[in-house]
Each structure stands twice: as structure tokens, then as C-alpha cells.
Specification:
By secondary structure, this protein is an alpha/beta fold. The chain has 5 domains: about 5-100, no CATH class; about 150-330, Rossmann fold (3-Layer(aba) Sandwich), CATH 3.40.50.300; about 335-385, no CATH class; about 405-475; about 495-700, Reverse transcriptase/Diguanylate cyclase domain (Alpha-Beta Plaits, 2-Layer Sandwich), CATH 3.30.70.270. The chain has a 6-stranded mixed sheet with strand order 11-12-10-13-14-15, sandwiched between helices. A 5-stranded parallel sheet has the order 4-5-6-3-7, sandwiched between helices. It has a two-stranded antiparallel ribbon with strand order 1-2. Helix 1 packs across helix 6 (about 85-95).
Length: about 700
């Protein structure tokens, strides 16, 4: 069997063409190339190609009923004898070929047709997907979670068929520039074009700050990715100047060796903007090449895609005409219809009111919308049941919620730019759009936190940013109303007593309370801590956490409480344990929560590791002394009464220490208690430079 015949069988079997990544893996593997070498010639990372290849070998193995690996791929295919049925499929395909996702050129380059098989995710629920991708980085071209935003894609596909075209894509980060580039490259590959991604984030500062080094780096990298020897020293004359040398390299060495169009992407072009002279010179060259391509071969092979996330900032002055080239494309927010498409592809059936609720919080931001659906379909790790939309909305502006990294990056940017911070703070309290200085408005729009209307009036982009940055801690300002001593530290006990009073009101809110025990639930626990975390950092408090879990809980709850005596008995036991915790834990500022049915968490600000360990041991003994019995004879001789294992961790509050880090450490200690048979307390030190633990790992039983 030939490679072409195999490609037809795969196409027919999966009812769609191979993706560019799959094509690269098959072609490279057929010719004995390593994944690293294949990656160097493409926009893909080697690890991504390895993952693609693993799935590909499994699919081909099932298709041919023969084990396939990268090393045996070619030999197995070449010796494989096609069955009569397979030969018939290939014959039918060749007679009536209608490949999917192929962009077909017509006599008029502006008139394009796209043919598709039915989408593979149609009539398919999220539960039937083999694996749900975590939303991180560009959306793979074969992913069902790429949502088209007409006419952006078709406009881009048409533009790259024009000789010398320059496509200019500008949008804030995480709006889908890299995902769109993958789709553009996919279409280019199906047209048999060369594609090369030049990512300026990969260039050293010493390179991008020097025009001659930058152009040499560009030519060398382009040559390597096209498998064309650079030979720069032969064509780089010191008397000609960098721009002329670069042009001559293209004209005499590069373009004559390629016999088909070449699409070059300049990714993260904004990294050059702090070097205005270099940016202007580079874009001047690109403009001149584009003009040459309109008239002369072989320049007509060139097409460019420029991607950047900001305009020129005032501290980096540059003639505005430098970026005024090519066809501009601005990536727009998702519409309600597109949000509904994404919901359906996650197996979520929503009405218009639910879609409006989500968009009121995060707008149509593609990355934030997709992350929300991911967590709705895959419950957050600190929830035992699926999270409802209302619960998710309530937690979104939480500094430790699902958008933590995104919000933290924005906060960092504001902390580094005081003028921008002040301008944005002024917007937070305005209900109607207002005017800002053009350069400030542009910077805020480039960050993606504001919208600018047709009258150049500015407003906060969505409620998520208004809620998060309205909290002074999240914008990096000092907290208001904090009780401090003369040295600026929290007064002994006073502030923690105040937190205690606020805690009483907070835990009475239904969305924050565990209805059975009246302790705070897990969502409320994180929201509450987030209110004071910056204050704990400012005052460098020692923070301790105790995590307690009932031993053999799942055996008790299923086999004893439910099956023999019913749910009420088990619920009564939980209430008794919660009441016991209220009696024992008497530290000011403490927060007590029930995370899971049999798991309790206690947060103790300004409590040392030694005191927390002593308290945990007292809790263990007192829970055992409650004498909450179970039918141990039915449980294989387990202890007569319910016992609890506990884990303790302690750390000094610092900016890099999030609450979940402290709780993860306490959970490690809890695991040690469980492994030792339960009914014991363990301490796990938090190993990091900011904290030298006073204890090694300790266990009590």
C-alpha cells in the first residue's frame, strides 16, 4: 500500500481530512524525521506533535488491524496488502472526491469556496467526547471548540491567496489570534503553500534590539524552517546595509528555491514596539516587498500575517504609518449565538436568559467564556457536585477562582503603570461611558479591560473586571479601615476580633453556608479568605490550616448510615462534629468550613504551627470521645466509634503563597495520617524560601 492510499483510507474512515499537524507527522515519519525536526519546520511544538502522533498511530493500528509505531510505520504500510473492500473504497473516493475543509481557488482569487463534511461534533454531547481539552493556549485546528466569527475566517483565507498580501491581526491577549493563525496555516497548507511562523518572543533581547542582528536572525530562521541553507555570510555585504542585504537574500537565495506561495507570520510583533526605529524599518521592508509582489516574480510568492496585541504606546513614539499597512482584522467578542454554539459543543443546553447572565459577567471574551463552560462541565476540584451557573457567577471575581491567572496578570500590569491604574479606577465608578486621553484609552483597550464606542467614549468591558478591581486589595492599594498599631502591624487581637464579627454575618448568607452544619461551604471559604489575604500579607501573619477527614468515611456513609439506618443518622453525626468544632476552636479570625460530607477545614490567622498542631490533636481526641458508634461487625472489624485523621500546615503570608497552596500542604499531611491507619494528626512543613519550618513532619496517635 502507498502513503496516498493510506491517506484516503484515513480520510474516509474519519469523514474529514487529516489536520495539518497529522499531515506533518505522517510525512515526516515516512521520511524518517524526528519530531523535533518536524516541529522546526512548522508552527507546532514537538510535544504537541508527539501527542498527535500517539493518537494517529492508534487510529491507523485499528484501521489496519496491525500494530503501528513511528519506527515501524513505513515498513508496515509498504508491505500491507489492501483488502478488496479497501480497494473499492479507494476507487470510489478517487472517482467522486470531495475532501473536507479544502479551500479551492477559482479563476477569480477573491471568489473562494469551502467544502466540508458534517461537523464531527454534531449531535454529540460533551460526555461522549473522549477527553475535554483544558482551555490553554491556541485552540487546535481539529478541536470542536473553535468557534468561527464570520466573516473573519473567510476574509483571512481569501487574503492569503493574493500575491504580496499583508494581513494585520490586532486584538488583546487571549482573544484568539494564535488560534486564527492555526486556521490560516491549515488553509494555506491545503492550498499547498509554505507556512512559517516567526515568533518574536523567541528572539533574545540582544537580537531584537539591533536591526542587523534581527534581520540576520529572521533570514536564518526562515531558511531553517524551509530547509534552505542560509549561507548569510556569502550575501551579507557590510557596504550594502542590513535592509538591502535582507532583500537581496530573499531575491537571490530564498525565493528562487521555492516554487509555491509562502505565508510568513510575524507573531507577537508588539515585542518590537519598544524599539520604534527597528519596528519602523522592519515594517518598511515588508511594505516594499509587498509592492514588489504586485509586479514581479518571484516576489509574488510572498504573503504576510502580522499579529500584535497593542498599538504603539506614547513612551515608544513611532510614525503611525508604520502599522498602516495591509488589511486590518480586529477579533471581535463572541455573539450570543456563538456562545450558544460553544455551549452545545460542551453538551450544555441553555436558554437565552442563561447566556445573557454569563455574558453580563464576562462579555463575549472567547477565552473566559470557554473556561466557564469547561468548569461547568467539569466541576471544580473543590466542589463535590456540579457547579450551577449562579454559583459559578458568584465565584468569578474571586482572586482564587477560575480566572485567577487572568486577573492576576491584569493586576500586575496595573501595579506597574500608575497612570493607567488611576485612569481605570476612575472608570469603575462610572455607569455611563466617559472620555479618556486617547493614549490611555488605547492602552486599556489593548489590555482588553474596556470598550470604546463609535463616539470614542470608554466604559469597563464587563462586570467581572468591575467587581474584581473595585476591591482595593486586587488593584494593589492599601486596604481601608484596617486597625493598625504605630508600626503599621495589625493590633493584637483587635483586627481579628473584627474579622470574627464580619464572619458571623458572612456565614449566614445562603450561598456561603453549608445547610446541614451551618459552617461555611467551600466556595464561601475561598471567597471569604480572599477578602483579607492581602491584609494578611501586608502584616506578614503566620497562617495555619487544619484539614480533618472522618476515617473510612465512604464505607460508613454508604454501608451503615444509608443502607442500614438511613441518611438522618449520618447527618446527625455531622452536626455533632460541627458543634464540637465551634466549642473547641476559639481563636479570633478563624474560619471553619465543611468542604466535603466528611471533610472539615479550619483556617487560623496569626496562629503558630505549634498551636495549630496542639489544637488539631485536641480535635482528634474529642471527636473520638464523642462515641459516635457504627456497626463495626458489618465493616470487617473497624474501630467501634468514628475517628478523624487530621493534617496541619503553617506558612507566613506572602504574595506568592495562595490559600490553595497552604491547603494542599495540609492535605499532604492528612494523607500521611490516613496511610498510617487513621486516627492520628500529622504536620507537613511548607518548603519554600519564605518560611523555615519549626517542625519536621510530625505524627500523633
Amino acid at each position: 500500500m502507498s502513503l496516498d492510499q493510506l491517506l484516503i483510507l484515513i480520510t474516509v474512515a474519519q469523514q474529514k481530512n487529516l489536520t495539518p499537524a497529522q499531515n506533518l507527522v505522517l510525512g515526516g515519519s515516512w521520511h524518517g524525521q524526528t519530531y523535533t525536526h518536524i516541529a522546526q519546520q512548522s508552527i507546532y511544538e514537538a510535544d504537541y506533535l508527539k501527542t498527535t502522533a500517539a493518537r494517529l498511530w492508534q487510529m491507523i493500528s485499528q484501521l489496519l488491524n496491525v500494530p503501528i509505531t513511528k519506527s515501524t510505520f513505513r515498513s508496515v504500510v509498504e508491505t500491507y496488502v489492501l483488502t478488496p473492500e479497501q480497494l473499492a473504497l479507494i476507487s470510489i473516493y478517487n472517482q467522486d472526491q470531495s475532501p473536507s475543509f479544502i479551500l479551492k481557488e477559482t479563476k477569480n482569487p477573491g471568489n473562494l469556496a469551502i467544502a466540508k463534511f458534517p461537523s464531527p461534533w454534531e449531535n454529540q454531547s460533551a460526555n461522549s467526547l473522549n477527553s475535554l481539552e483544558y482551555p490553554s493556549g491556541p485552540v487546535p485546528v481539529e478541536s470542536p471548540f473553535y468557534i468561527e466569527r464570520p466573516p473573519i475566517e473567510t476574509t483571512a483565507y481569501q487574503e492569503i491567496t493574493k500575491p504580496g498580501s499583508i494581513l494585520r491581526i490586532k486584538s488583546p491577549k487571549q482573544m484568539g489570534k494564535s488560534s486564527l493563525l492555526l486556521k490560516i496555516f491549515e488553509q494555506a497548507n491545503l492550498l499547498d503553500y509554505h507556512t512559517v511562523n516567526i515568533d518574536f518572543c523567541q528572539g533574545d533581547e540582544s537580537i531584537i534590539s539591533n536591526l542587523d542582528k534581527l534581520l540576520r536572525w529572521f533570514c536564518s530562521l526562515l531558511g531553517q524552517k524551509l530547509n534552505i541553507p542560509a549561507n548569510l555570510e556569502e550575501c551579507w555585504a557590510s557596504t550594502m546595509g542590513s535592509k538591502v542585504n535582507c532583500t537581496l537574500y530573499f531575491e537571490r537565495h530564498l525565493l528562487p528555491k521555492i516554487n509555491r506561495p509562502l505565508v510568513v507570520a510575524f507573531n507577537e510583533l508588539n515585542r518590537l514596539f519598544k524599539y520604534p526605529y527597528i519596528t519602523q524599518e522592519l515594517l518598511t521592508i515588508v511594505r516594499s516587498w509587498s509592492e514588489e509582489a504586485q509586479k514581479y516574480a518571484p516576489w509574488n510568492h510572498l504573503r504576510f500575517v502580522l499579529l500584535y496585541s497593542q498599538e504603539i504606546y506614547p513612551e515608544y513614539p513611532l510614525y503611525t504609518s508604520a502599522l498602516n499597512i495591509g488589511l486590518p482584522l480586529t477579533l471581535t467578542d463572541f455573539t450570543p449565538e456563538q456562545v450558544n454554539q460553544l455551549a452545545q459543543r460542551h453538551g450544555v443546553c441553555w436558554n437565552s436568559a442563561q447566556i445573557e447572565k454569563l455574558m453580563a459577567m464576562v462579555g463575549g471574551h472567547p477565552a473566559l467564556i470557554r473556561l466557564a463552560f469547561y468548569h461547568l462541565v467539569n466541576p471544580l476540584k473543590f466542589n463535590t457536585e456540579s457547579m450551577s451557573l449562579d454559583q459559578l457567577l458568584a465565584s468569578m471575581a474571586n482572586p482564587f477562582g477560575i480566572y485567577r491567572d487572568h486577573l492576576h496578570d491584569l493586576r500586575q500590569h496595573f501595579q506597574e503603570n500608575e497612570e493607567l491604574n488611576r485612569a481605570f479606577q476612575g472608570l469603575l465608578t462610572e455607569e455611563n461611558p466617559i472620555s479618556l486621553l486617547p493614549e490611555l484609552a488605547d492602552q486599556l483597550e489593548s489590555l482588553g479591560v474596556v470598550k470604546i464606542d463609535q463616539n470614542f467614549q470608554v466604559t469597563v468591558r464587563c462586570e467581572l473586571y468591575r467587581l474584581y478591581f473595585s476591591n482595593a486589595h486586587n488593584i494593589g492599594e492599601n486596604s481601608c479601615g484596617k486597625i493598625t498599631d504605630t508600626e503599621g502591624k495589625v493590633s493584637s487581637g483587635e483586627r481579628l476580633q473584627q474579622i470574627d464579627q464580619e464572619y458571623q454575618g458572612f456565614q449566614q448568607q445562603i450561598c456561603h453556608r453549608d445547610p446541614l452544619t451551618n459552617l461555611v461551604n467551600q466556595l464561601g471559604f475561598y471567597q471569604y479568605i480572599s477578602r483579607y489575604w492581602q491584609e494578611f500579607i501586608d502584616n506578614q501573619l503566620q497562617l495555619s490550616v487544619i484539614v480533618g477527614s472522618l476515617d473510612y468515611f465512604h464505607l460508613y456513609y454508604q454501608n451503615f448510615y444509608y443502607d442500614k439506618y438511613g441518611k438522618n443518622i449520618g447527618d446527625a453525626y455531622f452536626k455533632k462534629i460541627a458543634d464540637l468544632l465551634r466549642q473547641i476552636v476559639d481563636y479570633p479570625g478563624k474560619i471553619m468550613a465543611r468542604f466535603e460530607p466528611g471533610e472539615f477545614v479550619i483556617f487560623l490567622p496569626s496562629v503558630s504551627a505549634a498551636d495549630a498542631l496542639e489544637l488539631a490533636e485536641e480535635i482528634r481526641k474529642r471527636v473520638k470521645a464523642l462515641g459516635l458508634v457504627h456497626d463495626h461487625l458489618l465493616m470487617g472489624g473497624l474501630p467501634d466509634t468514628i475517628t478523624m485523621s487530621l493534617g496541619v500546615a503553617s506558612i507566613q503570608a506572602k504574595a506568592q503563597n495562595y490559600p490553595d497552596y497552604l491547603i494542599r500542604t495540609a492535605n499532604l499531611a492528612l494523607e500521611q495520617s490516613k496511610k498510617q491507619g487513621g486516627d492520628r494528626t500529622s504536620f507537613e512543613p511548607a518548603f519554600e524560601p519564605a518560611f523555615e519550618p519549626a517542625f519536621e513532619s510530625i505524627e500523633f496517635s
